[in-house]
Each structure stands twice: as structure tokens, then as C-alpha cells.
Amino acid sequence: MKNKVKPNYPIKVLEKAFSILDLMLEKGTPLSILEISRELGMSLSTVHRILDTLRFWGYVEQSALTQNYSLGFKLVELGMAKLRQVDWLKESAPLVKKLRDLTQETVHLSVLAEGEVLCLMKEESSRTIKMSSYVGKRGPLHCTASGKVLLAHLNEEERQRIIQEKGLTRFTSFTITTEQELEKELAEVRMRGFAVDRGEHEEEVNCISAPIRDHSGEVIAALSVSGPSFRIRAFDPDPSLIQAVLSTAQAISERLGYKTPEKERRKVL
User: In a 10 Å sphere around its CB, with 0-12 CB exposed, 13-18 middle and 19+ buried, how is residue 211 labelled?
Assistant: First the structure.
């Protein structure tokens, strides 16, 4: 992930408009003009004018009942347009579905986005008890299996910058909260080729993840299988499940032009 570079010629009204959209994305619920004004320290008149313009273009919607504002479907169109540009997602889709069918657990394909793990693709388990997630969901890097995979393959400078910026928030009793412990965990991820979430982000939800590489060998995404702890053992993972995740990640990487070293090659399931 690259550091954000401030624009040479910032346009204040655009910055304010984007800050409103970011706030609405963060909150995830409809907001009133007053709430936005208080959160961002903008005047009511400024917020009203910006929202009125965003509403006209379809980027926000206003409830006729409450008068509150929520994100509009125009943003969905933009998001889907971006996904259509990511050709490697098309190459990955059949293999992601195959892994879901094989494991009968929820499978995600995620990338690094602004110091967080971002889900770009999901194939949901058909079982009654399963984890709750959705395409577009973000999560912390230090306590998710996919996040650890992505974090482990960054250079040290970038890794440290993200850790300092995002911190190591505790979510459960298993969450890693010290840099020393996290670095040890990430070294193990690089050595064994996969990462494990042992209920570190959500209680009783475990996950196994492996890296996806492009033609140059750079890790561009993480493939994961997630499920309840009574089906996915995190402290003693099922070797067949690890094999399934690793071989699928290998197959996707090879579709993207990556040449898997012979010593790392696994039988594709």
C-alpha cells in the first residue's frame, strides 16, 4: 500500500464532500444534517448545500420520512465499475467457488486497502451456522488471517507505518496486542505459507488464509476459508483444509502468471 500523497492543489469543497461520504460510510446508518455538522465541525448551511448537490447526482439519498441522508446507489455503480476493471477477480471466481464447494465453508478473497483488509469477493457457506460478512467489508490486519497474510508480505517500513497508524486493538482474549508477538506471528506466516485467525477478531470464528501472487511474485490478495470454531480448528488445523486453501491460492496465482517454485508446488484440488 502506498502512502497517501496530499494534492498539490486541494479543492476545499471537494474535500468537505468526500469527508461527508467517508463519515456516512464509517457510520453505516442514515445521518441528519445536524449529526454530520457536529461530527465534522462544518456549518449547517455548508453541509446542507453539499448534501443537496450529492443528492442531485445520486451519491446520497434523503429519506422522505426522517429527512436523514444515506449513501446512494451511484456509489454502488462506481464500486462495481471498479471491480469490473480488476480482471484477476474474473480469473479467481471459479476457483473460489470450487473451494467453497469443497470445504462447505465461507470463502473470501481480500486485498489491502488503506491499512485494512477489504473483502472483494465472497462465496457463502450453505450451512445454517456461518460467519456474517459481505463484499466491501473492512477489517483490521493484525487479528484476521487474511490481514496477517497481507501484512506479513509488506516491507518492514510499510508494515511498521501501518501498525503505528492503526494500532493493535484488542477484540477478544486471543487478539495479538504487542508488536513483538505480532512480528513473531508474521514470521511464521511467511515460513509456513499461510495464516490462522484463532478467534482473534470475532469470538468462536476461525479462519485460514493463504497469499495470492501476481506474475512478478508480489502478494496482491489473500484467499481465506472462515467458519465457526467447532468446525474449523485453529490451534490444530485440519491438514486437508490447509492443503485446500494453499492449493487453490496457488492455482489462482498461476492463472495470474506466477511461476510456483517446484519446492513449494502443491497438488491442485
Answer: buried
